[in-house]
Amino acid sequence: MSTFDSTKTQLSKLLDEIVQGSIQLPDFQRGWIWDDDHIRSLLISIARLFPIGAIMLLENGGEAKFKVRPIEGVQLKNGSSVVADRLILDGQQRLTSLTQVLKLNSPVVTTDSNKKVIKRYYYINIEKALEGFENYEEAFFGVEEDRVLRKNFGRDIEIDLSTKEKEYKAMCFPCSQILNSDDWETGLYEFSPDKFKMYMTFREKILKSFRTYDVPVIELKKDNKKEAVCLVFEKVNTGGVPLS
């Protein structure tokens, strides 16, 4: 009898389950912060429909019992009363980053190239993205917690996205709206209807990639022994610690 199942699940469904609490982390998973470059590369990979690797989950409720916690940044409505159906064994960094960028309205805690902890909101420059995937590195960018991008060691403002109107004017789309852009679309149409056709092209070419993206999921069944679960975790997580 197989000890696991393998399938594909839509990214948006996985993230919904994470913010609802049906997918959580086992207590032995350490906190992780992915750097800004990794997060941007992850977003670009999905926009281009490139593979981002499989996710490994454990069906909860079997012999292998662990304390659980939600992914960093997720505030569960019912607190600890939410019972997790599945636990993340591999893919914590990717799922944490994608949850924070695509599902939460708070800034993403990340690090810069010097390992300094920073907070970022992520955006897509619509016009630049529509020029072709070779411009995605420039099109996907992060701004500081006040939604302002600065240059010249912070002395000059390169772009100010601190209000919705400024986002519309600059045609810079907030990544937190990728999976549900209804409010942003309505605001854009009211503010600048002449740009709406361009936006709809962007929605079809770029946003659709995120909304239809499938992630390979390997799910260990709950009847696996705790020793087997710990061994699998140690094998797939290079940053993990030996478990007993």
Fold blueprint:
Elements: E1 4-10, H1 11-20, E2 23-26, H2 36-47, E3 55-59, E4 68-69, E5 86-90, H3 92-102, E6 108-111, E7 117-125, H4 126-130, H5 136-139, E8 140-143, E9 148-151, E10 156-160, H6 164-170, E11 172-174, H7 182-191, H8 196-211, E12 214-220, H9 226-236
Helix pairs in contact: 6-7
List keywords for this structure.
single chain; 244 residues; alpha+beta; 4-stranded antiparallel sheet; elongated; disordered C terminus
Short summary:
It is built from 9 helices and 12 strands. By secondary structure, the protein is α+β, with helices and mostly antiparallel strands.
How would you describe this structure to a colleague?
31% of the residues are buried. This protein has helices at 11-20, 36-47, 92-102, 126-130, 136-139, 164-170, 182-191, 196-211, 226-236; strands at residues 4-10, 23-26, 55-59, 68-69, 86-90, 108-111, 117-125, 140-143, 148-151, 156-160, 172-174, 214-220. It is an alpha+beta fold. It has 9 helices and 12 strands. The chain has a 6-stranded mixed β-sheet. Strands 6, 7, 8 and 11 form a 4-stranded antiparallel β-sheet that branches. It has one domain (4-236). The longest helix has 16 residues, at 196-211. The model is unreliable at 239-244 (pLDDT under 50).
**Number of contiguous helices:** 9
Biggest sheet, open or closed, and with what strands and sense? 6 strands, mixed
Return the structural class.
alpha+beta
Extract low-pLDDT stretches.
239-244
Give the number of DSSP strands: 12
Order of helices and strands: EHEHEEEHEEHHEEEHEHHEH
| Spatial arrangement of strands, main beta sheet | 1-12-3-5-2-4
Measured by DSSP, the beta-strand proportion falls in 15-25%
Q: What general form does the structure show?
A: elongated
What integer is the average pLDDT?
Answer: 89
Task: Report the C-alpha radius of gyration, rounded.
Answer: 19 Å
From the N-terminal CA to the C-terminal CA, the straight-line distance is: 25 Å
The helix fraction, in percent, is: 25-40%
- Could you say how many structural domains there are in total? 1
